[in-house]
Amino acid sequence: MLVSSLLLWIASGAIAVSFMLWMLSRKLMSTGVAENRVRAHGHQNGVKALTQVYKKLLRDVYRWSMRVPVLKKKTASLRQQLAPLYSYDEWLLRERTASILLGSGIAILIALSIFVSFDQNLLSWIMLIVVLSVAESLYRDVMITRAEVKLLHLSSMLIGHMRHAYHRYKMVDAALEDTIERAHPMLVPHLQRIAKLISDPDSDSAMAAYEDAAPNRYYKMLGGLSKLVAEYGDPKGTDGSFYLKGLAMIVSEMQTELVMRARLDYLLGGLKAIAIIPILFTDPLEKWATTYFPSMELFYHSKLGWCLQLTVFCSVLMCHRILQQLHWRSAMAEEQSQRTGWIRRVLEQRIIQRLLDVWVHSRQIESLKRAQRLLHEANESMTLRHYYGRRFLHAITTSGICFVLIVSLHLGSTQWIWNQLNTKTLEAGLSMELTKQWIQSSNPETGNHGLQLALKAAILKEHPDWSYQRIEQSTKSLVPLAIYDREMKVSWWEVLLPFAAGWGAYYAFVMILRIRIRIRHLDMRTEISQMQSLCMLLRAFERMTAESMMEWMSRCTTMFRRPLQVCLLNWESGSDHALQQLRIHAPYPDFVRLVDKLELAHNHIPLNEAFDDAVQDWFYEQDMLKQHYETSIEAKAGWGRWLGFAPMYALIFLYLVVPLVWMSAEQMRSSFEQIRSL
């Protein structure tokens, strides 16, 4: 336990250092405000020196992580997640990336210190992998979510000030300049990009460049609306300025997302941590059970016991991943979660492509249609070849892992049994040759009582001077181990288990897509309402067309972005066919009705007439949206509570109740054998 104590001290020091680094990082986000406060208190030089040292440390960590092959990919992925928030400043982006890497390293160090305190075996290494994966993802999600929420909160208040500035100046650029002067340092670069977008004469290229750099869809809407009003003017309706309506709509959507995030964090907060707690209690629970019920040690070190412990680990990992899907996920996170480069590289091999083509062509048409419809509803862009390829790859990988685990568990259980036999034999004062000879010569059909009689006879022949009590004590400790060793044969279910696991993994990918569709349906209602609000706003512009409105819809949506982008790419080759494909790729009823209105506006009537009922629909959608929010949050909270506590239930049932039942059954079998031998 010396290494464990050392790591615990290192982890404690790392926590203290991380707290100091976190305090300094708060200075990093608002350097100008911090310098003014420090100047007022007369401590500017000291804090600036600490801040510079902290920045230099973070930059060195970032530079070092980009050179290490293992960390390079993780650093690049983390940088890509933070780029929309901090892309205006390369140094700040590197510093924020390095700070999250440092925090993840500290979380991993704490997990390692906990791991060393346990007995190391195959399952403990699996436990280490699960804990490290969960700890790193928890810390990363918390830090990125905190930055996104802070940006939303500050932006909602800032756009409210922008409304007052537009009331004063009646000009978009003047209102934007006045807002920049009063903005938080975190928001100034984003607003400066909008100002540059407005002044750029090349509207299309400037808008495309801004969309790639905008932190979220609200800034895309704000930039596009400001550019539209600056070029074509603010259309005045009977109820006021449409630009002010647009700003109010953006603020309302931001506040709605903030409320949704706050309620989801309140209801789902801590559930991901609760889901991984059973991993930490497996070893203490096993030690408690073996202390008070010594016969249960055989169960925990058997193949069945290891399989049950592995089931607990798998349930923890699966519940944690599903809980991540239940939390608020941006479009950026959703796109990154679907990127699996190594799978794509494997499936792009020429031989594998030919085999997959043969398999796809051999399938029935109805099966292919169902698979294509499933991919469309899940918003997956993969082809049918990749769809079936991933299913086969998951099945083969799962079967291989299951086969390796079964062999490892079998060898580990056999080794543990013989180690225990050797230890018990030496404690009893016997020779290992006598024990091996007794095990090999004994008949397994004689049962527990017959093995005891055979061992007593062998011991009495080898040591005739031993007392009856000593012989009885020796046989009681060796017979259960001998019975278990004779039963350590490869069973028929162990042969079938890899094939069953592969079959389950083949269909598990379909179940994952269906779960994703179910979760996405909870959020589609929100985006439909947002797009209808956008249509109500944009229909007032005379130069607005159905194609332009679809471009706006693709900017403000997450769930329907890919189908809308595909439709826009196919628009020039035929608008009717593109809209028909859009209905197929996104078969959500309310969205299909919105597409029908766009088709009318493009082919038959003006856009303003096609959406003449937009105001009435908007009021209806607001009422439905409130009800939908409540239903969505309650559904996610219910799923979250079930998934958060499911690993704990699995631990109690599989790791405590099942062993107790097994121990009772073994004692009953031993009692029946003794009664039968009388």
From TrEMBL:
<keyword id="KW-1133">Transmembrane helix</keyword>
<feature type="transmembrane region" description="Helical">
    <location>
        <begin position="392"/>
        <end position="411"/>
    </location>
</feature>
<feature type="transmembrane region" description="Helical">
    <location>
        <begin position="98"/>
        <end position="116"/>
    </location>
</feature>
<keyword id="KW-0812">Transmembrane</keyword>
<feature type="transmembrane region" description="Helical">
    <location>
        <begin position="642"/>
        <end position="662"/>
    </location>
</feature>
<feature type="transmembrane region" description="Helical">
    <location>
        <begin position="6"/>
        <end position="24"/>
    </location>
</feature>
<keyword id="KW-0472">Membrane</keyword>
<feature type="transmembrane region" description="Helical">
    <location>
        <begin position="495"/>
        <end position="515"/>
    </location>
</feature>
<feature type="transmembrane region" description="Helical">
    <location>
        <begin position="264"/>
        <end position="281"/>
    </location>
</feature>
<feature type="transmembrane region" description="Helical">
    <location>
        <begin position="301"/>
        <end position="323"/>
    </location>
</feature>
<feature type="transmembrane region" description="Helical">
    <location>
        <begin position="122"/>
        <end position="139"/>
    </location>
</feature>
<protein>
    <recommendedName>
        <fullName>GTPase SAR1</fullName>
    </recommendedName>
</protein>
